[in-house]
Amino acid sequence: METQASIYLKENGYYHGKEKLSPALITQFKREFDLFFEEKRERFFSRFESNTNYSANHDINRWNMLLPSDSIMLKSGFFVQDDLFQTLQSVFDAHFALVFFSSDISSPGSAFQTIHQDGNDFAVALNVPLVDSDEQNGATHIYPKTHRVAVNAPFTNESNKFSDDEIILRAEQLDPVSLDVKIGDYTLRDLRLIHRGTPNKTTEQRPYLSSIFLPSSENQAPTFESINYGLKLFKQFKDIAFPTGRTELIDYANTFGRLVLGFSNSDRVNRPIPKHISDQLNENALYCLRFAFFEDEKLNERIIRNVSSSEELLHEIETAKVEFEQLAK
Ligand SMILES: O=C(O)CCC(=O)C(=O)O
Ligand SMILES: [Fe+2]
């Protein structure tokens, strides 16, 4: 069923829901988030052997952080509140999953990002700002309607083929819109929509929660054993890459990590969802998270995990092993 938001999102490539979430809830999120973020930064910088050129883990003074499962942010199930779930059903028009439960932080000193699409493939990001944001502290610039291949092209879920240079050329014909947001708002963005991060000129962090929904199978996934094998290798790559401070090794490790999570349809396999959290989640939230690993065993049973779904992942893992060894020489 179409919603007002799904119609707008298909047409424009984004949707701005205003005053949709309770400010009191966002205050709770922010308090919890700030503690996680501080720990994250400490963990990140302790990985390097000596002083590093890295100012953050994602671009200059920008951070990307997966959120923990034992968290009010997950328990609140905000990602299916309002008419969000219906909107997602309508834009995906097939099965989908919440694959990355994450956050994007623009820190003081961040700069304009290169104009980009997050990917050529259709997917949807739900952003929840934890602070008000505008052009002072780095609200995202978007180029409306650029998720479609041309002004008159209808909305489809198909991948486009634009190269990085073509994306910049397309955007240069257009004016960006600053997607200013207030606490209590959320935004939905088609990952193909052209956009860029902008400078945070203040001295405060600008955190957004980012829930990334991807098209998925109904219920087929690799075994936990093969996923955990990939995640273990990801950890080994990071343990080798970070102390060297070598960008290409660190990038390889991170790209590989995202690949394993993508194959898993969930970033929650090594972040099990505690029972006291899943007990609070409604059926729509549990649907979005069905590929996660739950402490409540019966919730792991809705997915069929078998060798045939694992084969492609295992192949990628073996290829990465060889490539990483070559690169690390
Ligand atoms: O956080 C933002 O404002 C946008 C960041 C972004 O687009 C990205 O890192 O891909
Ligand atoms: Fe982006």
What does this structure look like?
The protein has 329 residues and is of the alpha+beta class. It has 10 helices and 11 strands. Strands 1-7-4-9-3-2 form a 6-stranded antiparallel beta sheet. The chain has a 3-stranded antiparallel beta sheet with strand order 6-5-8, with no helix packed on it. Strands 10-11 form a two-stranded parallel sheet. The radius of gyration is 20 Å and the shape is globular. The mean pLDDT is 96. 2-oxoglutaric acid (AKG) is lined by residues 104, 106, 113, 118, 138, 140, 195, 197, 208.
Protein topology:
Blueprint: H1 4-12, E1 14-17, H2 23-46, E2 62-66, H3 72-75, H4 84-92, E3 96-106, E4 124-129, E5 141-142, H5 164-172, E6 177-178, E7 186-190, E8 195-196, E9 206-215, E10 220-221, H6 224-244, H7 247-264, H8 275-278, H9 283-288, E11 304-305, H10 307-328
Parallel strand pairs: 10-11
Antiparallel strand pairs: 1-7, 2-3, 3-9, 4-7, 4-9, 5-6, 5-8
Helix pairs in contact: 1-4, 6-7, 6-10, 7-10
CATH top-level class of the largest domain: Mainly Beta
Return the average pLDDT rounded to an integer: 96
Overall 3D shape: globular
Q: Which regions are unreliable across 5 or more consecutive residues at pLDDT < 50?
A: none
CATH architecture call of the largest domain: Sandwich
Strand order of the largest sheet: 1-7-4-9-3-2
Strands, count: 11
Tally of domains: 2
The CATH superfamily of the largest domain is identified as q2cbj1_9rhob like domain
Order of helices and strands: HEHEHHEEEHEEEEEHHHHEH
CATH topology of the largest domain: Jelly Rolls
Distance between the termini: 54 Å
> Radius of gyration from the CA trace?
20 Å
User: What hetero molecules are in the model?
Assistant: 2-oxoglutaric acid, fe (ii) ion
Please work out how many helical segments DSSP would assign: 10
Major sheet characteristics = 6 strands, antiparallel
Helical coverage, percent range = 25-40%
Question: Which structural category fits the helices and strands?
Answer: alpha+beta
Strand share of the residues?
15-25%
